[in-house]
Amino acid sequence: MDLTPDDAARSVAERTRAFVRDTVLAVEREHRGSAHALPEQVRLDLQAAARQAGVFCPHLPPRWGGLGIDRRGQALVFEEAGYSLFGPLALNIAAPDEGNMHLLAAVADPEQQERYLRPLAAGLIRSCFAMTEPAPGAGSDPSALATTARPVPGGWVLNGRKWFTTGADGAAFAIVMARTSGQPGDRGGATMFLVDTDVPGLELVRTIETLDEAMVGGHGELVLQDCFVPADRVLGAVDQGFDNAQVRLAPARLTHCMRWLGLARHAQDIALDRAAGRRAFGSALADLGMIQQMLADSEIEIEASRALILRAAWELDSGGRAAQSTSVAKAFVAEAVWRIVDRSLQICGSLGVSGDLMLGRYLREVRPFRIYDGPSETHRWAISRRAVKRRARERDAAVRGALPA
Ligand SMILES: Cc1cc2nc3c(=O)[nH]c(=O)nc-3n(C[C@H](O)[C@H](O)[C@H](O)COP(=O)(O)OP(=O)(O)OC[C@H]3O[C@@H](n4cnc5c(N)ncnc54)[C@H](O)[C@@H]3O)c2cc1C
């Protein structure tokens, strides 16, 4: 396993580190880390500055205006960008656009790529991804998908309700998952559609109030009512939606880990500075055993998170699906970043919960990550099922004499 990012990626990571500290953090502070209703001009200015700094769009191939960095390199660069809540937005690697760009590059036909991927990669437009539905529809279990797409002359008619569609407010298009065959509960029968957000029959009925605030456009609830989508807006093949979702989901959950690890590192830096400067009971906080334990535990979890991310990134770079390694990384990192930010806040005492630091905001931002991209419990369920199957295969092999028990 070669986990070493190449020199080009290292150099982009170094530039990103400087760019985030010199330019982005001040904008984050000015807006208190809240981007749900960020003025569009702020996004455009940040992205222009990232272009100037040579760090814009690091993840896409050069033909889409990107820097062509592989997944291991992205682990470095995304972590540096994630040091600020606004870093990923500046580099055009924020969710959901980053995952959507990857999906479009992998699955869209050339015409769709010119229409949707080209402007998305350039930061001219934003996008969203609409899979989750209110109960009893798709959630942790995507097979509950209830939104339907009915064939009509020239295309499809979509009906259904979606929610928690990140970035919906202000997005130019949505990638909508709808059922083209079967019933809710069936494991197949889904199709992805590219739906322009200004078409009749698609309405953003509300932006949901949530704990987190750092994702541009917030989390929307959408209603599709007799929404006509032309046949050439099917993304990938009809009935292949669940397979194509895997193309997006495994890398997307890993890039979330990369970005949030950067924020956790920032929280740890704040705690380290405070622990060095603040005195109590005759010594610096940093010299008190229980503070040392918290700082050490966070260091251990930062390094363990990075190692799991790099291992999964290597598998993706090697052409693997990385279903297991991204699941393991996601479950671990989502919980570790929460603990790291929580410890940092504790070390800072009352200052930690105040608006004088950003730690309270950071804590609220990392909490939902234990739910989206698969809740921790869903990943543990999948991981344990794989482990049980693996052990059964090993027992079978032992019975056949092919392996020791
Ligand atoms: C901030 C945020 C942004 C989001 N952005 C998007 C987006 O852009 N597009 C989109 O389509 N969706 C998005 N989502 C939705 C997200 O993907 C879903 O919330 C997630 O898939 C869980 O679905 P659910 O909320 O319906 O929970 P449910 O499916 O109702 O699950 C509830 C709980 O059940 C438990 N559970 C689930 N599976 C198992 C299991 N196998 N064993 C034991 N317990 C289990 C877990 O504790 C889980 O939290 C977002 C969610 C949030 C919070």
Write the layout of secondary structure elements.
Blueprint: H1 7-30, H2 40-52, H3 71-81, H4 87-91, H5 97-107, H6 110-121, E1 127-130, E2 148-152, E3 155-166, E4 173-179, E5 190-196, E6 202-208, E7 219-230, E8 234-235, H7 241-277, E9 279-280, E10 283-284, H8 289-317, H9 323-347, H10 349-353, H11 359-366, H12 376-399
Parallel strand pairs: 1-4
Antiparallel strand pairs: 2-3, 3-7, 4-5, 5-8, 6-7, 9-10
The structure holds flavin-adenine dinucleotide.
Report what the structure shows.
The protein is an alpha+beta fold and 405 residues long. It is built from 12 helices and 10 strands. The strands form 3 sheets. The protein has a 4-stranded mixed β-sheet, covered by helices on one side. A hairpin with a 2-residue loop joins strand 2 and strand 3. Helix 1 runs parallel beside helix 3 and helix 9 runs antiparallel to helix 11. The longest helix has 37 residues. The radius of gyration is 22 Å and the shape is globular. The two termini are 27 Å apart. The mean pLDDT is 96. The structure holds flavin-adenine dinucleotide. Flavin-adenine dinucleotide binds next to strand 1, strand 3 and helix 12.
Task: Please tag this protein with its features.
50% helix, 405 residues, binds flavin-adenine dinucleotide
Question: What is the gist of this entry?
Answer:
With 405 residues, the protein is an alpha+beta fold. 50% of the residues lie in helices and 15% in strands.
Low-confidence stretches: none
Principal-axis shape equals globular
Write the element-wise H/E pattern from the N-terminal end onward: HHHHHHEEEEEEEEHEEHHHHH
Count every helix, treating DSSP H or I runs of 4 or more residues as helices. Answer: 12
